[in-house]
Amino acid sequence: MTARLPAHTGPETRGLLADPLLHELGHGLGGPFHVLLPNAFDANAAAFLGVFAEAGVQGRVYYAKKANKAAVFAERAAVAGLGMDVASRGELREALDAGVRGEDLMVTGPAKADELLRVAVLQGALIAVDALDELDRLEAVARELDRKARALLRVLPPEQPHSRFGLDEREVTAALVRIGLSAVSLEGFSFHLSGYDVRQRADLAATLVRLCRRTRALGLPVDSVSIGGGFAVDYVGAEDWREFEETSRPEHFHAGKRFGGGFYPYHSPAAGADALRAILAAVPSGERVPLAEVLRTADVRLLVEPGRALLDQAGFTVFRVQGVKERDGYAILTVDGSSLSLSEQWFDSEFLPDPLLVPARAHADAPAGPYPSCVGAATCLESDLLTWRKIPFPKPPAVGDLLVYLNTAGYQMDSNESPFHELPLPLKVVVEPASDRFRWHLDRRPA
Questions:
Q1: Chain Cα centroid distance, residue 88
Q2: Interval 405-418 mean pLDDT
Q3: Helices within 56-197 (DSSP H only)
Q4: Which residue ranges form the domains of the chain, and what is each CATH number?
Q5: Which residues pair with 184 in a beta bridge?
Q6: Which of 199, 245, 326, 427 is 20 to 30 A from 174, comparing alpha carbons?
Q7: Strands 356-358 and 126-129
Q8: 413, 289, 404: which is closest to 22 by C-alpha?
Q9: CA nearest to 70, candidates 445, 443, 446
Q10: Hey, how many other C-beta atoms are within 10 angstroms of the C-beta on 192?
C-alpha cells in the first residue's frame, strides 16, 4: 500500500472542507472549479516584506504573474504594494488592469517581442535583458520612442552553463560597453536559477553584488540584483515525505506507472519567506559576512520574483466523482474534468499530495478503509489521469462525492488548461470568511 501524503492545510481551507458551500458550488457551477483564498496571498506577501524589514535590507517583491491567471491575486499584489513579474503583453495588460503601476513591473522571458518592449518602455517597466540582440532591439525601441529604457542584464549562472537564459561573461562585458553609449539605463543584474538551493542563490547574489561594484567603476550607477523566484512550498510533512520516498514502488501506481520527470520536492525545510530569510542569512562563498550585510554594505537592493510561494494555501481545486470502477484490489475513479487542470501531470510527473474525499452523504455503515483509488479524467485518453497513485481513502468513494486537491493555486490550476472534448474550463471562485459564514464570487466580475 502506498504511503499517505496528507497535505498541509490552512484554517480557511479546513473551514471550507466542513462547510456545505463546496457541494452547493459544485451543484450550481456544474463542473470542476477552483477555490481562491486571497487572504492567504496577503499573508504570504506580508511575510516576504517582513523578512526584508527584519534583515534591514532594501528589497522589492515582484509577484510572478505566470503562477496563476486569477485577477484577484494581481489585484491583491497591487494593494500590497508588490511589483509584478510579467512575460507577455497579455500579462502586462492584466497587471495594469489590476492596478499595478508601470514602473512597478518587471518584464522577463527570453527574446521579448518588439511590441512588448515598446509597451514596457512606455510604461517605465524594468526589463530583464536576456541576450545581446535583445539589448540592440531595446536600444532601437527606446531611441524611436525618445525614452530611456530601464534594464537589468540577466547573467548566465556558472552552476548551470547549459541554461538557455542569460548572458555569459563575454556577453556581459560586451553589453556594458554598448549600454554606456545607449538609450538604455542599466539598474543592475539578475539571474534565472533552476531548483531551490539556498546556498547557490546566496553565492550568485553575492557575485552579482561584486559585479555591481565593478560596473559602478565604469560610471554606470547600478543598484539592484534580482535573484528571481525558486522559493519552495512545503506541501507535506517531513516524515510523510521521507516515508514516500523510501517506500514508493511502481505497483503503488495504476498500470505500474513510472515517471521520467521526477517529482517536485513536496517537503521543504526552508520554504516561502523562510527561504528568503535563509538566503539573506547565508554567508556566500568568497565573503565573511551574511548576504544581508553584503547587500547593506554595497547599498544594493535585492529583488525577488516569487510565484508559487505567494500562493501557498491560497487555493484548491474541486472535482465531482462521476464514476467508480473496481479493478484488481483498487478503484478507478472518473471525475468531471481532466488532468489539464493539474499541470504537473503533463510534465511526466504527478501532483502528489493526497486529494481529500468530501462525501455527498454519510458512510456510517462502511467498513474501515483504506480504499485505494487512482483518479482518471472524463476523456477518452488512456493516459489522462489526475492521480496515478492509488490513494488510500478512508471511506469508499461514490458518485456525487467531491474530490479536493489541496494547495493548487501555485501553477497547478491553469498552466496547461484546455477545453479538450469541449469540457468547460474550471471556473475560479473567490471565497472569503464573513462573520459566521463564507462569501464567494467568481474571480472576474462583470464589468
A1: 16
A2: 92
A3: 71-79, 89-98, 114-123, 132-145, 169-179
A4: 11-37+314-442 (2.40.37.10), 38-233+268-311 (3.20.20.10)
A5: 149
A6: 199
A7: unpaired
A8: 404
A9: 443
A10: 24
Q: What distance in Å separates the CA atoms of residue 95 and residue 89, rounded to the nearest whole number?
A: 10
Nine cell digits for residue 311? 500562493
- C-alpha 226/C-alpha 29 separation (Å) is 41
Spatial CB neighbours of 232, under 8 Å, sequence gap ≥ 6? 196, 265, 268, 270, 271, 272, 275, 308, 309
Residue 425's pLDDT is what?
Answer: 86
pLDDT band, residue 344 (cuts 50/70/90): confident
- Helix (H) or strand (E) run with residue 275 in it: helix 272-281
Report, as an integer, the average pLDDT of 210-238. Answer: 97
Helix, strand, coil percentages, rounded to 5, for the chain: 35, 25, 40
What are the cell numbers at 165? Answer: 537564459
76 within 8 A of 42, measured Cβ to Cβ: yes
Q: Is 436 helix (H, G, I), strand (E, B) or coil?
A: coil
Q: Could you tell me the end-to-end alpha-carbon distance of the chain, in angstroms, rounded to an integer? A: 51
Q: Counting beta carbons within 10 angstroms of the beta carbon of residue 111, is it exposed (0 to 12), middle (13 to 18) or buried (19 or more)?
A: exposed
- Residue 445 confidence (pLDDT): 55
pLDDT at 447: 40
Q: What angle do CA 422, 390, 388 make, to 5 degrees?
A: 40
Predicted structure pTM score: 0.96
Query: How far is residue 252's CA from residue 135's CA, in Å, rounded to a whole number?
Result: 51
Across the range 80-104, mean pLDDT stands at 97
Q: What is the pLDDT of residue 446?
A: 44
- Measured distance CA(386)–CA(335) in Å, rounded: 9
Give the 3-state secondary structure of residue 86. strand
For residue 43 the three cell numbers come to: 499573508
Residue 156: burial class (beta carbons within 10 Å; 0-12, 13-18, 19+): buried
Q: What is the mean pLDDT of residues 273-288?
A: 98
Which element (helix H / strand E) includes 276? helix 272-281
Cβ–Cβ < 8 Å for 320, 28 = no
pLDDT (mean) for 391-418: 94
Residue 241 pLDDT exceeds 70: yes
Residue 342 has pLDDT above 90, yes or no: no
Cell of 443: 474571480
User: What pLDDT shows up at residue 364?
Assistant: 62
Note the pLDDT of residue 38.
Answer: 98
Contacts of 310 (CB under 8 A, 6+ apart): 41, 44, 45, 48, 61, 63, 64, 67, 73, 77, 410
